[in-house]
Amino acid sequence: MEKHPSAAAYGYGPESSGAAPNRKPSRGGGGGAAAGGTGSRQPSVETLDSPTGSHVEWCKQLIAATISSQISGSVPPPVGLRALRDGNKQAQMEEAPRVPGETIKTIAKDVMYICPFTGAVSGTLTVTDYKLYFKSLERDPPFVLDVNLGVISRLETISLQIGENNRGIEIVCKDMRNPRFAYKEEQSKLEIFETLTKYAFPLSNDLPLFAFLYKETFPEDGWKVYDPVAEYKRQGLPNESWTISKINSSYEVCDTYPALLVVPTSIKDEELRKVASFRAKHRIPVLSWIHPESQATIVRCSQPLVGPTDRRCKEDERYLQTILDANAQSHKLTIFDARQNSVADTNKAKDGGYESESFYPNVELNFLDIPNIHVMRESLRKLKEVVYPSIDEARWLSAVDSTHWLEYIRLLLAGAVRVADKLESGKTSVVVHCSDGWDRTAQLTSLAMLMLDSYYRTLRGFQVLLEKEWISFGHRFAARVGHGDENHANSERSPLFVQFVDCVWQMMRQFPSAFEFNELFLITILDHLYSCLFGTFLYNSEQERVNKEVHGKTVSLWSYMNSQVEDFTNPFYVNYENHVIYPVASLRHLELWVSYYVRWNPRMRPQMPVHQHLKELLVLRTELQKKVEELQRDVASSRSISSSSEHGPSPSHTSTPLYTTV
Amino acid sequence: MLSGGGGGSGGGGGGAGGGGGAGGGSGGGRSPKPSFVSYVTPEEINLTEKEISRKEKQPDLLQGEVIFCSASPIRKCTQDDFSQRGIFGSLFCTNFRISFISDETQLEEEEGQVFKNKLYGENDIPLTCVDNIYRGFDEKKKLITSGSVRNKYPSKIIIHCKDLRVFQFSLAFAKEEDAKKIFQGIVHHCLEPKSLKCIFAFSYSEKMTFSSENQTKLKTVMFDSMVDWAQEMKRTKGNCKLVSANADFNISTKYIWCWSHHSGCALFKTASLPLMQEDGCSQSYRTYMERYCTCVKTEELPETLPTIQDIQQSYNKFKQFFLVDNTTEFWMSDVKWFSSLENSGWLDIIRQCLTKAVEVVECLENENTNVLIMEEEGSDLCCVISSLVQVMLDPHFRTLEGFQSLVQKEWVAGGHHFLDRCNYLHKDKESPVFLLFLECVWQLLQQYAPAFQFSETYLTVLSDSVDVSVFSTFLFNSPHHRATTIQPVSLLAQKGPLNLPTVWDWSVQFNSAAQDFFTNPLYVEKSRQDKVPRKTFRPKHQRHQSLPSTAFKSSPKKSFFKDETDSLKKMLRVKRISRWLNPTDLTQSTTREFYEAWQRKPLDYHGLLLPCVDGPALRVWAQRYLRWLPEVQIFGGGAMTLEKKLVDLLAEVRELRGKLDWHCSVDFSHRGAAALAGSSVRLSSAFPFFVSRTWSFKPAIPSCLQKNLITGTFADKEDEDSECLGVI
């Protein structure tokens, strides 16, 4: 990870951090986090020493770029000073900071990093079992590149000749960059490539994922964020029509579903099993979300196994009828098949298919025309070519257009808007499925829920949404991301989750004050989707996670993130409680997420000083409020009149809902 | 239906009405909520409707406004109404505008209409704001040109406005005679060439007296007197000599001082390289230049920037994406959005201008060289570049008053041909050069919002005002033109000179609540302790600057001048050749470095600002271009929700401070919170311009999702359209 040069100087070395009490025991490693950051004016030195904290710092810096003079104008590089004092301790100073549990595997000196933006630079390359760390003191302040190994998609040797350096490595990353190194052909350095390969792909080399070695502790326990029973209770479940079933408690009915499922009360277990045999991968229709007023529901499942012979399943038909009956407001049930009609037909020929409106009375079937995972993978691959390393500014728009990435984002958002609108305005229950019901289905249901339910737009709520719709319902993270696996060409890989987070970002842009979390929150989630530092996104299903004891042996990403909530909080947040937000699914309003996809390009560092200004204001307000309260207390005690709520809540919180949904 | 068009019926005198669109604060006494749950029988409703429609038959005329013709009933087809049923009413054509007055009572008006223009309402189109008129038939449309109107009239006319509104009026219900009249009237007044004196501003100002109080109250420096220039020079510590020799406007080629850098170097602009002329005045100018600028870098703008025609063509393509007639058309064009956007080249032109301005800034800032920018007339791109340079370098021009003074200095006094470029007289010299400048400023604004005192709403309103034909600011081709136009009239009429309002007198258009939207709540004012005295650089060319100014007042011998002029010309030529030798890549790469070096430094909102011009950084000015499109309105969202949060917070902080009884030293910019009162959920991305009638929370769902399917049909469709457009 390249960073603003002055950043490196700061966070490095115990002196800069030791002075401050380490309030947050966050010795966590950030995904590709480099140490330090020019920091913000708040005295957050305690976060600077920790790579996790510094990840935030670094991202902040990335986002806030060159914010203001008070910040980076006054960075005294302690390393530089020490360099003067200690003279020749270069090696020591180029040493990599480590997270607890991390061990250094190899160190190579005089390696050259070929930076596509600022030119080649020589320094020391350290490979640990978690990251690759390059530091050069050639530049002032020192240059640091920090890439976690989880992000590596493939490693390639390249032949080149730069001075004495005749060996080269290209590191193809999943996060839109390909750093390159060059070094002399020496015995000691041949190790680099091998060590990198070994630890970048631990599963292919019979090694554990780093998440199992990571030894950090956080004040918050992220594994407690999601409790399915509590979440269903929040939605008002169980009720007379829906019950929480334990039929899958040992993952026997469906091995990719969670243990707890919400199904219609009137359906017997025996029928459920029959329905399961009629649905691909046994992924039966289960409730994801229920509208608090109309009782219309979002139900997710996989495709029915209709096949070319138009098989029927009485139980499945009755099951959908029961779902329809559970909602008194509508006498229709809408099925959204995420696929293109033609693709669904192809699937039908291959024993899959879709619900025929003639066998399922009162059902309305819609295709959302969203292409499959392979198309999305290809699209992101093209996008990478467009944004890295350099941007052709004259043809930028058509280049972005040719990747179709935003067009697919638009399709997804439009589909989710249709789902949400069906529930909200049509008061109609919807069933969403694609082929297996774990990719596009998860995208659509979670996006629709984000529009409908303001809880999911809070920091905690969003975590619950991910834990529920994506993680527990078996989005195949291991297969789609390829954690620790060297088979980069595996066709199972696809950036579906990235695409979803992009959609969330697009919604955030259109509704800048409707989300409690900020852009950094989303970027951090995506960084740790790959990093393998936390257990959150590992494995394909709840069952696998239980078997691997993920909760006991790894740390949850939410433990880290919820321990420093203020970094991820959107200062513009206004309580949009009870309001449905419909993003506009028009390309005129969609934009490429530059601060994620193009963040390695130093020229494209977006400036977000607006937040800075607002944060200052918020601080000022809190101070003033405190003072006012003090004064009022004084007055109250002297006159013994309570005047506690005189200044009242902020106007933004008194907004009366126009209409309610939750 | 309703007999007797405009004349007879009450003349809008009825106190209840006050006119649909135009009248301010109509219906104050009505219940705040539109409710059609009614206690009256349908017949009664009909009655009242008729009554009201009779009463409100006429628009509220402005001073000096005359109705030319009218017709009713006319159906206005509405876009934001999903049922497409439209509204019935009357259509008027006056010497100022085309006005549609609805028969229905405008109950919805009052709420959210803080931002109301006093001159024209939402159903009014100033004649100069009309861009194109089409005749609509079936699902197609055909462009109407001034010559093509005979005795026929179409059943439907579609009017595209310069502020990007689209109106569709169905004439099919009106009496044939009326329909024909109004159609021909509209076409005549909107498309035929006319003389300057027919512009509404003149009849308007004859009747209105714009008290010079208003004018003097304005803090905007008008640059119409020597004093203004002298003050500005003093402010920038410039070292130029003011020459009043041009008071009688007889100098055609001139160097004009624009701005002085604190290092002593300055920016000049000029029409293209002056030929040898023997007349004294230009001589003295030249001499003056020679003395002042031994080292001057010239930038010939036409070499690297698009022509006026290119700009016009590109903008014509670009604006089509926003002039959408119906929802189907919108979603079909949406699929090709990015490639169409690129094909229009509009963003690229903006990029070129910004890049050029950065180059000039680099010369001034890094090399401390004088810069002379040239183009044929010296009043189009010269204005764009010189004013952009100043916005980037000088924080004064990022304040509201400073910006207005800048426009006054560089554009109005600088002789930009507003009259021609705005095409008031339909003379085919149109080009949105001033809009291009506003676009560039908007790009800077969205990149560095806290550096600007004015908001994007201000820029949008300013861009709209250009087409209102009331303001002297945009009415003339040069100060000379202005002077000669205004003076003779007044001499004959034995009155004082015509007192035309300037656009900067915003009270002509908006009340003070609406004007609150002009200030940017993000603006970070310079705090006092920041105001360190400027470092005084030692100017590079001190010797020349310290020459006694009398040296060029007296007229020395010719030969002496000739020599120096020759050497100057030689020097300029050398510079030009060296520019040829340096491929543009090279200048670009140094500019890149300049930008990157600047970017590495901490950002100072009161210092130099450089725009990022990389592909992703340049955006479409969504507020201006998307505000009327119901399909892309984000209900409950948009940038305004951010502003609201900020405004709320500021108000709260102020209130708290008040409570603490601190002597009110509020150092944040104010904004009347009243203007944004209420829940942010009620706002939308088009706020404050477009407030939806219906507030239906139905989302806009793309009517077609699959690209493959669409491209085929769309390609066909497009062909049809272009065929139609081709027919004259």
Automatic annotation (TrEMBL), chain A:
It holds the Pfam family GRAM. It is an enzyme of class 3 (hydrolase). This is phosphatidylinositol-3,5-bisphosphate 3-phosphatase. One of its GO terms (cellular component) is cytoplasm. It is found in: Cytoplasm; Endomembrane system. Residues 222-597 form the Myotubularin phosphatase domain. The gene is MTMR1. Residues 1-52, 635-662 are annotated as: Disordered. It comes from Scleropages formosus (Asian bonytongue). Its main location: cytoplasm.
Automatic annotation (TrEMBL), chain B:
Residues 534-544 have a biased composition (Basic residues). Residues 1-30 have a biased composition (Gly residues). One of its GO terms (biological process) is phosphatidylinositol dephosphorylation. Keywords: Cytoplasm, Sarcoplasmic reticulum. Residues 1-38, 534-556 are annotated as: Disordered. It is found in: Cytoplasm, Myofibril, Sarcomere; Sarcoplasmic reticulum. Residues 257-625 form the Myotubularin phosphatase domain. This is Myotubularin-related protein 12. Its main location: cytoplasm. It comes from the Eukaryota. SUPFAM superfamilies: (Phosphotyrosine protein) phosphatases II, PH domain-like.
